[in-house]
Amino acid sequence: MTHIMRWSDDWENTNWKQLRKVLFRLQRRIFKAVREGDQAKARRLQKLVLSSYAARMLAIRQVTQLNQGKKTAGIDGKKSLTFKQRFELETILKENYRTWRHQGLREIPIPKKDGTKRLLKVPTIAARAWQCLVKYALEPAHEATFHGRSYGFRPGRSTHDAQKILFLNLASHKKGITKRVLELDIEKCFDRISHKAILDRVIAPEFIISGLRRCLKCGTNPKFPEQGTPQGGCISPLLANIALNGIESLGQSVRYADDMVFILKPQENAEKLLTKVEEFLAERGMNVSQKKTKVTASTDGFDFLGWNFYVQKGNGKFRSVPSEENFKAFRSKVKHIVNNSNYGAQTKVLKLAPVVRGWRNYHKYCQMEDSRFSLWHLSYSAFKRFLKQETINRHQAKDMVKRAFPNVKYSENKFVNVKGDKSPFDGDVNYWSKRNSVLYDGAIAKALRKQSHSCGHCGLKCLDGEKIELHHIDGNHNNWARRAKSHLMSGEPTLPGVLLPSPYVKDSSEFGHDRSRKRTYRNADHKSV
User: Fold this and answer.
1) What share of the chain is helix, strand, coil (3-state, %, to 5)?
2) Residue 375 and residue 388: Cα distance in Å, rounded?
3) Which of 2, 27, 243, 506 has its CA 20 to 30 A from that of 494?
4) What is the DSSP string of 483-527?
5) ∠ CA 422-409-261 to the nearest 5 degrees?
6) Residue 130 backbone phi and psi in degrees, to 5
7) Which of 56, 57, 70, 175 is nearest to 125 (CA)?
8) What is the predicted pLDDT for the residue at 290?
C-alpha cells in the first residue's frame, strides 16, 4: 500500500506548470523558426521536444487522463494505466521514441449517416502516447505554414470562425445574393490520403518520418496499402491537414478538416474551379464525390457544419440557422433522455442540462427566433413527464424544467474571428487568454476579467482548450447570492470564490496548472477549495 501511494504522490506532485512552460517555450521557438524559413533549426528544436522529459510526461497525461477517449482500449485490452505504469511508459518512450513500432489496431465499426459503417482503428495507449509526443513536435511547425482559412482540428480555431467567414463573404454589403456556393465533398478522405503526399510535406527529422511511415502502414487497408490514415489516433487530423493544406488558395473558400465550400462570384466558372480541385486531390490520392459535390445558389441555402446558410431573396440578408439534420439529432437525444424510464426526474435534469446548454452554445451566433428553436415543445413534454413522478408537484416540475433547459443568449453573426494567420504558438499569450475568456459569461466572465484572464491558483494564463470553472474557498457550492458574487471580484481575503481550472479538483492537474501547491494553499489560508 505504501509503494502504491508513493507512485501516486510522485505523479500528483509533478510540477505540471513548469513542464508546460518548458514545452511551450520549445514549441514557440519551432513556430518562429518555420515562419522565418529556417527549417533546419526547426528540426533541431523538434529533436529537443522529442527527447524532452516535459513533453513525454505531458503526452502520457494527455492520453491517460485528459482525452475524451482515454478509456478506449487498444488491441492489448488496456483501458487505463496505473501511476506506476505511467512512469514505466515514460521510460519506454525515452528509450524507443526514435525506433517506435506500433502494435496492431483495434477496429471499432461506427455507423454513418447513410447507414453504412466506417472502421475506427484505435491504437494502444502506449502508441497514442507516442503519437501525442510526435504531435507536440509537428504541430507548431505546421501551424506556421497552414492557410488562414483552415479551421478544423487546429488550436485556437473553431467552427464559429468558419461560420463568420461565410457571413463576411455572403453578407448584403458583399452582394451575397448574387453569389453561388460550391459544396465540396471528398470521397473517403481519411481512407484515401496518399502516404507519400503526407510524408513529403511533413517538417520533421528523418527518424520521425520513418516512424510515421510505420504508423500509417499499421492501419492500412490491404486493397490500398499506400493510402489512408487511421482515424483513431490523435495525430490523424494533423496529418490530414498537412496533406490538404493549400487547397484553400484555389479560390475564395472555407475549410474545416475535409469539409469545404467555395464561394463563387457571378463571373467565376464553377467547372474550371472543380477541375483545379480534382487535380489537387488527385496528386494526394483522393477524389471528389460526384454525388455530393454540387453548386448551389446562395438564396437556395446549403448545409455546412451543422448549420443551414442562406441569403434572403428580398433584402439580401445573410442568415444561418441550425440545419434540419442537426436539430433532428438533438431532438432525438433529448427525447431519449426524457422518455427513459430508467432515470428519475432529478437524473433527467442532470443529463439534459449539459446537452441543451451545449446545443444552444453551439448555435448562439445563429438566427434563433424560429419557435422550434425556443425548445418550448420539448420543455413542455419534459414538464408533463416530470409531473408523472408522484413525489413532484407542479412548482417543482416547473423549476426542474428551468434547470434542464438553461437559457443561452444568442447574438447573430457577432462572433469575432481569429486575426489572420495567428496561432497559439506565436507567444501572444494575452491575445489568446482574452479570446478564450469570451467563451464564458456571468460570474465566471467577470472573475476572468478581474484576474487578468489568469488562473487564480497558479497564475498561468487560461489558454485555448482549457475548461474554466468557479471554485468556492468557503466550500459552500450553493453560495451564489448577489452579494457573494460581488465579493468574488473584490479581491478581499474573505471572498467566497476564486477562479481555477476545473482539473484542479480532479485526479490530475489538467492543462498544466500546478497541483503540487494545493496543500500549501490550504495550510496557508486554512480554507478548503
Assistant:
1) 50, 10, 40
2) 20
3) 506
4) HHHHHHTT--TT-SEEEEEGGGGSSS-GGG--GGGHHHHHHHHT-
5) 45
6) -65, -45
7) 70
8) 84
Nearest to 60 by CA among 133, 137, 134: 133
- Residue 87 neighbours by CB distance under 10 Å: 16
Q: What are the residues whose beta carbons fall under 8 Å from the beta carbon of 57, sequence distance 6 or more?
A: 14, 19, 90
Give the residue among 94, 46, 85, 95 at the shortest CA–CA distance from 65: 85
Please give the pLDDT value at position 473: 66
Per-residue pLDDT at 78: 84
The answer for residues whose C-beta is within 8 angstroms of residue 206's C-beta and 6 or more apart is: none
If one counts every other C-beta atom within 10 angstroms of the C-beta of residue 386, the result is: 24
pLDDT given for residue 481 in this prediction? 54
Intervals of the chain under pLDDT 70 = 1-5, 219, 222, 441-442, 457, 463-467, 472-529
Query: CB under 8 Å to 119, separation ≥6 — which residues?
Result: 107, 108, 109, 110
Q: Which set of grid coordinates corresponds to residue 354?
A: 449539459
pLDDT at res. 506: 36
Contacts of 341 (CB under 8 A, 6+ apart): none
Q: What is the pLDDT of residue 289?
A: 85
Cα–Cα dist 457/447, whole Å: 13
Inter-CA distances, 134 with 13, 31, 60, 93, 402, Å: 25, 15, 12, 11, 46
Q: What stretch of H or E contains 91?
A: helix 83-96
Residues in the chain: 529
Backbone angles phi, psi at 108, to 5 degrees: -120, 120
Query: Which uninterrupted H or E stretch holds 307?
Result: strand 307-311
Is the Cα torsion angle 201, 203, 209, 213 positive or negative in sign? negative
Q: What's the rounded Cα separation, in Å, for the pair 199 and 359? A: 38
For the whole prediction, is pTM greater than 0.85?
no
* Confidence (pLDDT) at 463: 66
The cell for 32 is 518562429
58 near 136, Cβ under 8 Å?
A: yes
> 253 phi and psi, to 5 degrees?
-150, 170
